[in-house]
Design brief:
Elements lengths: L3 E4 L6 E4 L9 H14 L1 E4 L6 H9 L25 E2 L15 H6 L16 E10 L7 E5 H6 L3 H7 L3 E4 L1 H7 L7 H6 L3 E4 L1 E3 L6 E3 L5 E4 L4 H15 L5 E4 L6 E5 L3 E5 L9 E8 L13
Parallel strand pairs: 2-3
Antiparallel strand pairs: 1-2, 3-13, 4-15, 5-13, 5-15, 6-12, 6-14, 7-8, 7-11, 9-10
This protein binds N-oxalylglycine and manganese (II) ion.
N-oxalylglycine binds next to strand 5, strand 14 and strand 15.
Amino acid sequence: MTIQIRPLGPCIGAVVEGIDLREPLTADQAAQIHAGMDRHAVLVFHNQPLTNEQHLAFTQALGTLENTANNTLRSAADFRLPPTMADVSNLDGNDKPFGRDDRKRLFAIGNRLWHSDSSFKAVPAKYSLLRAVRIPSRGGNTEFAHMGAAYEALDDETKALIEPLICEHSQMFSRDLIGFREFNAEERERFRPVRQRLVRTLPRTGRKSVYLSSHAGTIIGWQLPEARLLLRDLTEHATQREFVYSHKWQVNDLVMWDNRQTMHRGRPFPVEEARDVRRTTLKGEGPTVAQEAIAA
Ligand code: OGA
Ligand code: MN
């Protein structure tokens, strides 16, 4: 079978057909998928009834897994998946939806803000691969915005302004935006800010993108109000509908996105319904800026 990659629009996203992700990936298929990711930034695979192990095997055929075990407030009792998978569901260890006021849920719904996965890590994520096992009766889309297209649409003055800038990212900054501000000492240490370039270049294509994320909370050398306003303006610009694909989930969809050139966000759905989505993540190839060289 040869792979077909059909664009979903002029800017972002494509559907991939002619591949069974349960089967071992050939070198040729892997190369086509990487090329498709470089070009479209989001790839959608329908009707892929994978086990967790097959999902992991497909991911590892494309790169090195990122350890996402410490990214949430889930406790061991709420782990439903292998430690190599991120549980993006709203389900506790008994497969029951978290209550509306559950602290773990209130932290987790921070992913309804536009973000790039693991931008709060010194080596941030490359691809994320999210698979739908159960979906709610309505809502719960995932939206993706193309940061390369957004960068290209900036005026020259703004491009020059942001070119040298370095931001600090932390899950505490993204949660602050939704009023979730109480962290204990262990969490504050775990969510310590890291530094990221605001403009990055996709290595294989040379395409520049604006590296935004709700986790970005400061710009080094800037006063906070001005930094926050610039980040907000850029985010508003970058998430205009012309740059966005909104994915309406079907069970057994697998959607893969490139965190280096997109942001994404989840959309709300009924709190009492189960939404079981599971993610593997590929580690990026290195930091976007040397952490030690600029340590305070
Ligand atoms: C993620 C994420 C949003 C969603 O899996 O990284 O942000 O719609 N998901 O579940
Ligand atoms: Mn995410």
